Amino acid sequence: MSQLRSVVCVIGTRPEAIKMAPVVAALRATDWARCVVVATAQHRNLLDQMLRRLEVPVDHDLDLMTAGQAPTDLIARMLPALDRVLVKEHASIVLAQGDTSTVLAAALAAFHRQVPFGHVEAGLRTQDLDQPFPEEGYRQMVARIARWHFAPTSGAAEHLRAEGISAAGIHVTGNTGIDTLMHTVHKLGPAPIRQGRTILLTAHRRENFGLPLRNILSAVRELADRYTDIEVLYPVHPNPNVQESARSVLANHPRIKLLPPQDYFDFVDLMRQSTLILTDSGGVQEEAPALAKPVLVLREQTERPEAVQAGVAKLVGTDTKRIVMAAVHLLDDASAHARMAKGGSPYGDGRAAARIISELA
After folding, report:
1. Could you tell me how far CA 102 lies from the centroid of its own chain?
2. Which of 95, 150, 305, 343 is deepest in the core (most CB within 10 A)?
3. Is the CB of residue 273 less than 8 Å from the CB of residue 251?
């Protein structure tokens, strides 16, 4: 019997846990791989909660998060820690998902040890290094040194080809987040019936801190004032910039609930019960269309244009009036709402992880 190949999966944040969980599960079901899970703990509490709920056991917990950490400091601590793991585990392959400091560090650590790196969710682009920052720069850097580029859509694959990446290394797999979403919906069963209409808000991106975030929150408050039959639910990210803005703009409104960060399963339930979703989150842009929920994207640019092109999401930016106008249109026009809700998901069929493992085998 041939020796198992050591596949090191590096995870640092809650979204990475969501999107790597099906890859880890698929690897552990093979007869050729020894899957090693490394947690950098870039986001400590949110990551731990997610890994437990998705039943992803961690083999190496680097525990690198510190209060007020700068990306440069975090990456500087990650590189030697990851290098030690790759040596200890005799890594044959390194995998990471997305565009965070963890992903860049994992790719660099693998590169310096000449271990082939697989980038899950490759090829997302805005072509603007400031939108989002620093993620757009990170994913472009990673593309230069990855061997496998697992693109979620044909558009993402085209971005990579346009940058000169060899077509032999590009594989359109669908998005692994849809794998996890479908598995979760199956486990949850039928969605609870909620009285009245609900707007679900998520807003936490770094480039929206300050005035853009306050504009978003002002729009939400205006909507809550306008519609007495609508409740706004806002799980507030723990970042102090987000917390302060949320309290100052939205506190003490009878139809706005500021919630703590939600467990993934609970958040999926909130999405299923929502009338409309407003978000600056990449993952929610992918998940909401799969749940037949219209999405207003609170960003000036998105690296996930497929949902906008399919008519299931609308890019509204951070201008208060523009957000309110787009939301009012969907809340007042039932046929417009229905058209967006029935557009379907362009991000996959729930089999992305299986396709990734097939390419690695």
Report:
1. 14
2. 150
3. no
Residues with catalytic annotation? 99, 121, 135, 204, 206, 237
Evaluate whether 295 touches 335 at the Cβ level (below 8 Å): no
The angle, 0 to 180 degrees and rounded to 10, between the axes of the packed helices 176-188 and 282-290 is 50
Q: Which residues, including other chains, have CB under 8 Å from residue 37's CB and lie 6 or more apart? A: 9, 11, 24, 56, 57, 58, 59, 60
Distance CA 352, CA 345 (A): 14
Strand order in the sheet with 148-151: 60-61, 33-39, 5-11, 93-97, 117-120, 148-151, 170-172
Whole-number pLDDT of residue 79: 98
Burial label for 183, CB within 10 Å (0-12, 13-18, 19+), is: middle
Which residues have a Cβ under 8 Å from the Cβ of 313 and sit 6 or more positions away?
A: 285, 288, 289, 294, 295, 296, 297, 304, 307, 340
**Residue 334 token pair:** 């039932």
- Tens of pLDDT, residue by residue over 20-69, are 999 999 999 999 999 999 999 877 777 888 899 999 999 999 988 787 78
Beta bridge partners of 201: 278
Question: 303: which 2 tokens?
Answer: 């690296």
Query: What domains, with CATH codes, occur in the chain?
Result: 5-172 (3.40.50.2000), 192-341 (3.40.50.2000)
Q: What is the pTM of this model?
A: 0.90
